[in-house]
């Protein structure tokens, strides 16, 4: 059984995934960056009703998205985004095979201080990872510049499905006739919602500067790799010594509160497994299957919207 997702309504989610074998399949090139933004914006348009994206960053072999889901659409949103991005990038670099290492990690961020910690972590991740000296030097996809400039993400791409269909049997087709444009704007953190842009911009710059100072200090003065060396890598390269990263369900700095969250999750998992056992026991009895009361905030099998939404 994979990870049992616990998806509370209106919770803030820190979403992460890594490429297969930590390969640099998301290496920042013009086409790859455009594909990331295109499928992110299209997924937001198709399945993003109720999803508020506060920030995102895509490094060479993984990504982070900080968001809030108010209508239970996260599974559909992520499924559509990841599947189409993987297919498109693989096609572009002439590769086949598994793209993502596993299903995406979905960590619930509990608390105000915790929100700002993860928000800064996302925006400054290229610095924390030792790739560049400042976040704006990163040549890959990030929400930071869009937020600083108060501008939406706007991207145009080709609907390859319709385009290829039009070209069947040797017919001619103009790619421009199949262009689609999507856009969305990163959501302003709730605490800054009613601030004028210049005040938000100043606060964001201060948050980023403080986080980057800490991250550079944590690296004990080790210089950043730099974009020149980053771009000298190949998509199928991978780190020499990949770090082992344990999975966790909650991000909470209050130890007592974290204990409560873990206890609630254990209870949730126990009940979910009971329901799963009842499902397998009654597969040939549709009436009993329909009567199973799945726990709130969980995804019953084949269901893409959690109970309680």
Strand order of the largest sheet: 2-3-1-4-7
Percent helix: 40-55%
Total tally of structural domains: 2
CATH class of the largest domain reads Alpha Beta
In percent, how much strand structure appears in the residues? Answer: 5-15%
Number of strands: 7
Shape: globular
Please report the distance between the alpha carbons of the first and last residues: 24 Å
CATH topology title of the largest domain: Alpha-Beta Plaits
Q: What's the SSE pattern?
A: EHEEHEHHHEHEHHEHH
CATH homologous group name of the largest domain: Transposase IS200-like
Average predicted confidence as pLDDT: 95
Give the oligomeric state of the chains in this entry, treating copies of one chain as homo and distinct chains as hetero: single chain
Main beta-sheet strand count, sense and barrel state: 5 strands, mixed
List the uncertain runs: none
Q: What class, by secondary structure content?
A: alpha+beta
Radius of gyration: 21 Å
Per DSSP, the total helix count is 10
